[in-house]
Amino acid sequence: MTIEQGLLAWLEANTPLQAFWMERPARNNRAIVYRAISPSFISGNLSNPGLRRDLFSITVYHDDVEKGKAIAETLMSGLHDFHGDLSGFSVQLMEFQSGFDQKLNKEAGIPVYQFNRDFLITY
Question: What does the domain layout of the chain look like in residue ranges?
Answer without folding.
Answer: 3-122
